[in-house]
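All the exercises in this workshop are built on plain-text protein records. A record pairs a protein's sequence with a compact description of its fold. Backbone structure tokens are a discrete shorthand for how the chain folds in space. Once this layout is familiar, the rest of the handout is easier to follow. As an example, a complete record with its sequence and its structure tokens follows.
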Amino acid sequence: MIRGGALVGALLVVLAAARAPAAVPEIIQLNIDGGINPATAQYIDEGIELARQRGAAALLIELDTPGGLLESTKTIVKEILGAPVPVIVYVAPSGAGAASAGVFITLAAHVAAMAPGTTIGAAHPVSGQGETIGGDMRDKVENFAASLGRTVAQQRGRNVDWAEKAVRESVSITEREAVDQHVVDLIANDTADLLRQIDGRTVDVAGRTVTLHTADAVVTAHGMRLRQKVLDVLANPNVAYLLMMLGIVGLYVELTHPGVFFPGVAGAICLLLAAAALQVLPINYSGLGLIVLGVALLVAEIFLPTFGIVGVGGIVAFVLGSLLLFDTPDSTLPFNRAIVLAVGLPLGTFMLVIAYLVVRTQRRRPALGMEGLVGEIGEVRRTLGPRKVKIFIHGEYWDAAADEDVLEPGTPVEVIAVEGMRMRVRRPRPEPRSA
């Protein structure tokens, strides 16, 4: 009887387990809309780890990028190739593109898809100014990028020849051409359509075969943390340059007008933010050196009577350094040279004008305070003793020491010095007559 009851209980447990709904698979979704930089690399690495910890069916990256830093791209490709969960890259929405660094990221995915009206390609490495790299450096960077594209495409079973052409010839293709040429796997109208199409597909994940169960999966969006968002904004060369210019202006105004405080504090904050950006952006140190030299020359113009020669040299060095600052082969993030002409050149001129005004003010005779009384004409009101008189000047009475034994009341006198609370005076000297 007891054994029979135990068998019935076990049977009920099995039936309950069979009727229990299976766990709904989860997909972690990341959205990348902008340049590829260290913040993007951290974001993707964090997304992969989150998907692993939560046992997600896959990690979905919705991608729209014009390119970015080569070092960050290499990091992302390495993370995707070694990911413990399937990674799906979806170039979307319509009108989006996976250019330059985006090509390598898309090729590295376990599943690569594109939305209608999207493009992929143009992975030829260029300088930060958007220009073709010249000389031996061009061959070095181009060969590395081409080998990276071939390796990734070969590992994922995609078009190796096209991957090389995307680097060497900057070819760019539409989503239909990408499917026809085996660059991506499929075209999907939206995320739901994508998950339906890839359901049941098998992929190789870290040496093991994984079957995707995505048709009924729950998509969980995972956004950037605040630190990553700030770094993502700062890693834009245009933003970094503007912050550096604002910082220089603030500190320069504080230097030429001590005690104002606000420009100095704001300038210091902007310079610290710019320094944080320059730490993650590839920069040309010759350009940075020229900017520092230019600022130093503009500051020196305040103290050196060079009649603008040092200041003009500072403007030239400042502008040349600005143009060269982001001229490197390690980034395809665009730097707008018009910013240099619109901000850098006027800024240098402004600093030179400020230096001129400061020097002119320093050389001008004081107009206020006790020093401003030197050279003014007053009148003797009372004689106090030998060489001592009481004078009236600017509506005030002052004790004064005269250079004559006796000065009668009503005699005009000229202030020649102020010594504490006493003045030294003399009779006004007649103006020299012209011949």
About this structure: The chain has three domains: 14-225, 236-363, 370-426. Residues 370-426 form a domain with the OB fold (Dihydrolipoamide Acetyltransferase, E2P) fold (CATH 2.40.50.140). The chain is about 50% helix and 20% strand. The two ends are 143 Å apart (CA to CA).
